[in-house]
Amino acid sequence: MPADWPPLKLYLRESGRQSFPVADLVYMQAVANYSWLNWMDGKRMLMPRTLKYYTPKLPSDWFIRLHRNCVVNRRYIERLERTETGGVVHLSTGDHLPVSRRRWSTVRRQLVSIMPHLN
Q1: Contact call for residues 92 and 38 (beta carbons, < 8 A)
Q2: What angle do CA 19, 22, 24 make, to 5 degrees?
Q3: Mapping DSSP to helix (H, G, I), strand (E, B) and coil, where does residue 92 land?
Q4: DSSP state letters, 28-82
Q5: What is the C-alpha to C-alpha distance for residues 103 and 87, in angstroms, rounded to an integer?
Q6: Which residues contact 11 (CB under 8 A, 6 or more apart)?
Q7: pLDDT by residue (tens digit) across 8-20?
Q8: What phi and psi values does residue 3 have, to the nearest 5 degrees?
Q9: Would the keyword DNA-binding turn up in this protein's UniProt record (predicted)?
Q10: Which residue from 28, 49, 52, 118 has the highest number of Cβ atoms inside 10 Å of its Cβ?
Q11: What pTM did the predictor assign?
Q12: Can you tell me the distance from the alpha carbon of 13 to that of 112, in angstroms, rounded to the nearest whole number?
């Protein structure tokens, strides 16, 4: 992954405005009008913005939408698993994220094209 993508600039109440490398963002999950940002070092941040606000700030070829409330960094995906409700993505961090039934075929196609071992 190229490291020249601009960092994500976030305002944190405790420390003010800070920049975070996009490559370290593992996934984002929406909860109402807030978003949980989950980082590689295990840090989680609850931010007062929706996924719709953050998604355009991320490189579209690095991130993939799994569900209406979840966007994940492809770099951290280890495997896919099909279930009755859609599917599950297993991440290298140990997390498991649901894939909606509607997005399953698109997600699978996009991931298999760049990661043949998922097939």
Answers
A1: no
A2: 100
A3: coil
A4: EEEETTEEEEEETTS-EEEESS-HHHHGGGS-TTTEEEEETTEEEEGGGEEEEEE
A5: 9
A6: 17, 18
A7: 889 888 888 989 9
A8: -95, 5
A9: yes
A10: 28
A11: 0.88
A12: 40
Distances from the Cα of 61 to the Cα of 46, 55, 65, 75, 107, angstroms: 24, 12, 11, 10, 12
Do the Cβ atoms of 35 and 45 come closer than 8 Å? no
8-113: CATH topology is: OB fold (Dihydrolipoamide Acetyltransferase, E2P) (2.40.50)
3-state secondary structure of 98: strand
Supply 85's token pair. Answer: 């409700």
**Residues 66 and 108: beta-carbon distance below 8 Å:** no
Average pLDDT value for the chain: 90
CB 63 within 8 A of CB 81: no
Contacts of 80 (CB under 8 A, 6+ apart): 87, 88, 89, 90, 99, 107, 108, 111, 118
Predicted local distance difference test score (pLDDT) of residue 33: 94
For 69-83, the pLDDT digits (tens) are: 999 999 999 999 998
